[in-house]
Design a protein that fits this description.
The chain is about 30% helix and about 15% strand. The chain is of the alpha/beta class. α10 links the parallel β9 and β10. The protein starts with 16 loop residues before the first helix and ends with a helix.
Length: about 400
């Protein structure tokens, strides 16, 4: 998944020429060397938990790790009404709430989480952490190491299991021994799945939206191209670029990776119907003009560099590639049999990133799938990001699961 910006969780649309001029004109805001949140920045609605040293599956260590998180609602006296909401690859903890100091964008699931919504904050205590390795307050490559410089290339490879272990420690600090539900889409769905398999006694219900049990060769291939787009940028410097002046970082590579990823997030049908072969301006592309869809990708790719970090992107995409719930557990099917919580598995008919076959494998292998051996499939032309865009339909499914 992965457009977490609230205005991106909408059908694709032509980019007005004025938006292009704003970005290209003499008053354009310089691209920062990183779009990460940094200590000293306004915390906004974030809270922070120190979770100790995290030893990773690959043998590295994140010393004195911190998770940033946000909460809504009130934890009841038995700590039995907590819901964990897990974001996708480029998301963060800001599930709901306005943009403002500390938050460059508004919440990415405003219509699903809130008072009276499907995940009702009048009933539930909702917790949304920024994942380990991220760049919006949790420890990641852009965070400061104990020596006072950024982790950079020293930040170890992390896996979905490492990230879930970090979330487990956060839950312990909050006094939550069992989640009423764990909900995630795309990469967040990988986390929700790991919770249900690793800690079945701590998960009351689970929702896996547009996600998978193990990353396929096709998905790994796409991920590898995005990583290479970033790491071959001259400004990458092996991941140690943070002391460079603004324009000298790997912004071009990061923007290119984002543009490549977006083609998996939206469907062919939507792009073809929305943009066709229309020009961005009155200038024929044969004469130096551009197609609308090219400008659309450029604007969103360039904007992404202002809110994300290249080091985090490389580490998190790698974590998605290494995802395999069956690793060390006798295979995927054996791992899925460990799940005891009622589990909602949702696929998107037009998803070309995590196609419905991925969700069919999940539903058929989870003994407590609420829809049986077949997933719930949303018929939508919006592709992978439909679990963000089709918030009403997704909300109805979640409300039924949560009871």
């Amino acid at each position: 998944m992965d457009w977490q910006l609230s205005d991106d969780a909408q059908p694709a649309a032509r980019v007005p020429a004025a938006r292009l001029l704003e970005q290209a004109g003499p008053e354009a805001r310089p691209v920062p060397v990183t779009g990460a949140w940094r200590p000293g920045d306004d915390p906004g609605d974030r809270r922070f938990a120190r979770i100790g040293d995290v030893r990773t599956e690959a043998g590295g260590e994140v010393a004195d790790a911190v998770l940033a998180f946000e909460t809504w609602g009130r934890l009841d006296e038995h700590a039995g009404n907590a819901v964990l909401v897990l974001h996708a690859l480029t998301g963060d903890s800001h599930v709901r709430g306005p943009a403002g100091p500390g938050h460059a964008t508004a919440g990415w699931w405003e219509d699903v989480v809130g008072p009276g919504a499907a995940i009702d904050t009048d009933r539930f205590f909702v917790v949304a952490p920024n994942m380990l390795g991220g760049c919006q307050g949790s420890t990641g490559p852009a965070s400061l190491h104990a020596d006072g410089t950024e982790w950079g290339s020293r930040f170890p490879r992390v896996t979905v299991r490492d990230q879930v272990e970090a979330q487990r420690r956060l839950a312990d600090q909050l006094g939550i021994r069992r989640w009423h539900a764990v909900v995630g889409g795309s990469m967040g769905g990988m986390h929700a799945l790991e919770w249900a398999v690793t800690h079945p006694e701590r998960v009351g219900a689970a929702a896996l939206l547009a996600s998978n049990a193990a990353t396929s060769a096709d998905q790994i291939a796409q991920n590898s191209l995005q990583i290479e787009a970033v790491t071959t940028d001259p400004g990458w410097l092996g991941g140690d670029f943070y002391d460079l002046p603004g324009h000298a970082g790997p912004a071009r590579g990061l923007a290119l990776a984002r543009r490549m990823a977006m083609l998996g997030y939206r469907s062919q049908h939507e792009l073809n119907e929305r943009f066709r072969r229309e020009w961005q301006s009155s200038v024929d592309p044969l004469q130096g003009g551009r197609f609308q869809v090219e400008s659309y990708l450029d604007v969103h790719g360039n904007r992404f560099t202002r809110r994300f970090d290249a080091g985090s992107y490389v580490r998190l995409v790698d974590a998605m590639s290494t995802h395999d719930v069956g690793r060390g557990r006798g295979g995927v099917e054996a791992a899925l049999e460990r799940i005891t919580a009622p589990t909602l598995v949702v696929g998107i008919s037009s998803d070309r990133l995590f196609p419905v076959a991925d969700q069919q494998r999940l539903a058929s292998g989870i003994p407590t799938s609420v829809s049986g051996a077949e997933p719930v499939v949303l018929e939508s032309g919006f592709g992978h990001d439909a679990f963000l865009i089709e918030s009403g339909r997704v909300g109805d499914l979640l409300a039924t699961l949560l009871g």
